[in-house]
Amino acid sequence: MLLNYFRKCCIGFSYGLSFPLTLMVLDFWLKDSGISNTIIGFFTLLHLPFTLKFIWGVLVENYDVPYLTPRIDRNRSWIIVSHIMLIVGIIGMAYSNPSSNIAQLVFFASLTALGDGCKSVVLYPYQIHGVTKNQLGYVASLVNLGHKCGMIFTKVLTLHLAYFFSWRTAYLSAAIAVLLLMILILFIKSPPQHKEETLSGGFTLVLSNSIKKSLITPFLKMIKKREGIHVLSILMLYKSADFMMQKMSRPFLLEIGFSKLEIANIVQLFGAISVAIGGLVGGYFIKKIGVSRAMIYCGLGHAASFFLYVLLAKTGAVPQILWFVIFCEALTGGSVTSAFIAFIYTICQTGSMYALCWALHEISGIFFMSISGIVVDNIGWSLYFMLVSLFYTAVLIVLRRRHKNLAVE
């Protein structure tokens, strides 16, 4: 049992290791290179290849990788493919310059996001394999814990290396870490794979049948089984304000005077540890009060933590205040993420459905993050943080009124 939980943490660590390289860490790099908040906000659109990972779900579940699959298995062969794309993309980013050759950075960041999305789908069966209904909260919190530990490693490592050496050194080191983790994952026992009958017909017919089997039919079944509009509302709105906070909090801290080293130590290291603890707290609440109520109550606490940034905007770069703000935001944010992951587990049975639900969630997030820079540049930091907090509270109130209609307890 303990070994199984450790494997779940390793899978989460894999998610967290590569994910920040095209969002959080890249934001710091862009800001450090003098890129405006508006452009940083629009850079979120580069994460679309990751968001469209449900397309990978169809390929991963229905198609073999030539040469590799006959020699190992389908899961491991797709793991190798996804990590090769990741490594090539990260190395390409390392040799890009945001100030003079932003087109090159855009291309390799998109390739990195594409590989990350493929890896996310491939590893989903590893998350839910052997998990019972009573273990959902614990497994969600463990995956979240591993995810945050991976993010700690990546963000702290890259920011320290960027501070003492260069951004190129930081990204090349991340590529090496991804390679080593790929080797580790290949030693984890692959979940059972269902052998499907080979579909006859041309490529177009086979592909359309695969999409219907892996995406359309399960999605329609989920919508009919539960209140469809409510499910979609949760997927697309539940963490929308959190996306806006994550996107602009990093440029905000640099703008008011915090150094990359302070951000690495306080926000990335201490903050990620607090998030991991919050994830375990969220798992406890899921066990005690159910998924829906945990989502609401943890979310309200997270919304309240956003107001603390107003205090930081007034005081400026005061490390002691930053410690407190990050602790409150990260602790509540970790519990929110665990609750949301558990919700995803309750409605998804296949990797394609998992990818589709996350895609709906992330497309909404990309929209909110892409406009966040425009909002900040027009209303200022203090009003921005208050607006985001009030918006999140309003979303949670609406969801609270209807949570009894959604059978995810």
Task: Provide an overview of this structure.
The chain is an all-alpha fold. It has one domain (2-188, 221-398): Growth Hormone, Chain: A (Up-down Bundle), CATH 1.20.1250.20. It has 18 helices and no strands. It has helices at residues 2-18, 24-32, 37-42, 48-51, 54-62, 74-94, 102-128, 136-164, 167-185, 203-225, 228-237, 240-255, 260-289, 291-306, 308-315, 319-347, 351-379, 381-402. α5 crosses α10 (203-225). The radius of gyration is 21 Å and the shape is globular.
Euclidean distance between termini CA atoms: 24 Å
Biggest sheet descriptor: none
How many distinct beta strands? 0
Strand content: under 5%
The assigned structural class equals mainly alpha
| Low-pLDDT regions | 197-203, 405-409
Helix content: over 70%
* Shape estimate: globular
CATH H-tier superfamily: MFS general substrate transporter like domains
In the CATH scheme, what's the topology name?
Answer: Growth Hormone, Chain: A
CATH class category label: Mainly Alpha
- Count the domains: 1
Order of helices and strands: HHHHHHHHHHHHHHHHHH
Please tell me the CATH architecture by its name: Up-down Bundle
Quote the average pLDDT.
79
What's the alpha carbon Rg, rounded to whole Å? Answer: 21 Å
Count up the helices: 18
